[in-house]
Amino acid sequence: MSKGRKLVIICFAILGAISAGLAAPSLLQSLFEAIQRATPVPTQVIPPPDTKPKATESSAKTGSEDKQTPSSAEADDPAKKPEPERKIDPKAVYERSIGEINRQMGPEQYPGSRNPATIFAVALLGLIIGAGIGNLVYRFFERTGERWDKMESGDKVTLFLGIFAGIIASVPFLFIFTGLGNVIAPLATFGLTIGFSAMAVYALRSMDEFLPWQRNKGRSRRSGIKILDTNVIIDGRVYDVARSGFLDGQLYVPNFVLDELQHIADSADPLRRQRGRRGLDVLRHMQADFPMEVGTHDRLSPDLHDGVDARLVRLAKAIGGDIVTNDFNLNRVAALQQVNVLNLNDLALALKPNVLPREPLTIAIIREGNQPGQGVGYLDDGTMVVVEHGRRHMNETMQVIVTQVIQTERGKMIFAEIPEEEEPDQEMRRRRAKGSV
C-alpha cells in the first residue's frame, strides 16, 4: 500500500470518527424516538366518570312490573317522579391522555445518549466506515487518473467540450426547478447535467472522423491492449504464455470473435465443434486468472461485412492495441497496415534451442525417413532430426552428430549422422577385398 493511500485512509477514518462521536447523542436519541414511534401504544377507551352503568337484563325484567304499575301516591307526588334517563354522548368517550401513556411507556430521553462508552462505540464504528470510504475514494481517483493519462489529447478535448455543453444545457433548468425547494432543485439540476454531458460526449465521439482535432489522427502512443484472435484462442498456447508472464497488459476479446467461437462450437462437424469448445474453455480460464475485457471497444470497428480479420485490424488501429494471433495471413495484412502483431509461432521458433553443425545430440530414433536408410527422431521441443543410416537403429536412443540445420517457415529441420558409422557400401567393398585376398 502506497503512502498516499495510507494518508487518505487515515484522514477519512479520523474524520469519520470525529463526525460519528459528535453526532452520537442526537443520532441515538433519534433512533430511540423512532423505535418508540414504531412500537404499538396500548390504549383504553373509558366512559366519563359520571356515567352510570346500565341495568342488567334480569333486573330489568324483575323491575319491569314496578315501573309499569306505579302506585297512585307516587304518581300524584311530584317530588317522587322518576328522573329522565341520561343519554351518553358518543363524543364524551375519550382515550387516556398522552402524558399517562408516556409515563407508562418509559422516559422520553434515552439514558445512554450521553454515556462516554456509547459515544466511544459509535466513534469506533465511524472510524471503520470512514476508512472504508477513504479506500474507495482513493481507488476511484487512482483509476480516473490512470485513464486520464492514457487518453489522447484529442479525446481529452472531446470530454471537456462534452461536459461544458452539458453544464450550459442544464443551467436553464436550475431556474425552472427553483420552486421545488433548496434541496430537490440542485439535485435535479445535477442529474440533468450528468445526463446532458454524457449525451454530448457520446455525440462528439460518434463524429470523431469529422472533428478537426480528431481527423486523420493516428495513435501516437500504444495502449498496450492485447487483442486475441480466434485462431490463437483455439490453439490454447496463449494461456500458457500469459501465465508465464510474457503477455502483459490488458487482454481484450471482441464480441465478433466470441460469436465466431460460438458458431464453431455449434458446428455439425465433430472436429470443429471440439475446437470451438476448447477455445471457449481457454477463454473461461483466462478470464478467471487475468484481467480481460469483452466487447467494450467494438463500437470503434463496426461491421462492414468485410470479415473478422479486417475488423480486428481496424480495431487495433483505433485503440492502439496489438493483435495476438498465429495466423500467417493475418500477420501479413496487419503488418502492411502498420499494426503490431504478436505471433505465437514466431515466439515458439525464437524459443527453440540453436543447434550448430558438429554438435552432438542424444535422440531416440522412432521411425523411418523418406530416403532409404534414414531414421527420424524428435527433440523435446518437437524439432525433427533426420539421421543418416539410422534405419538400422530403430527404437534405439543414440548420440548423433549434427551435419546440417535448415530453417523453414514452419520451423527447423536438423540432419545428423551416427559417429564412426561406416556406410554400407564402404563396408561391402571392404569385405569383398578381404575375400579376394
Describe the structure.
With 437 residues, the chain is of the alpha/beta class. The protein has 4 domains: 1-48 and 91-150, no CATH class; 151-210, no CATH class; 226-350, Rossmann fold; 355-432, Beta Barrel (OB fold (Dihydrolipoamide Acetyltransferase, E2P)). Helix content is 52%, strand content 13%. The protein is built from 16 helices and 12 strands. The strands form 3 sheets. Strands 5-4-3-6-7 form a 5-stranded parallel β-sheet. A 5-stranded mixed β-barrel has the order 8-9-10-12-11. The longest helix is centred in the first third of the chain and has 36 residues, at 3-38. Mean pLDDT is 76; it is low at 51-70 and 91-99.
Helix content: 40-55%
* Oligomeric state: single chain
What portion of residues belong to β-strands?
5-15%
Described by strand count, sense and barrel closure, the largest sheet is: 5 strands, parallel
Strands of the largest sheet, in order across it? 5-4-3-6-7
Euclidean distance between termini CA atoms: 91 Å
Whole-number total of structural domains? 4
CATH T-level fold name of the largest domain = Rossmann fold
Topology, number of strands: 12
Would you identify the CATH architecture of the largest domain? Answer: 3-Layer(aba) Sandwich
Supply the CATH superfamily name of the largest domain: 5'-nuclease
Shape: elongated
Tally of DSSP helical segments: 16
Radius of gyration computed on alpha carbons: 46 Å
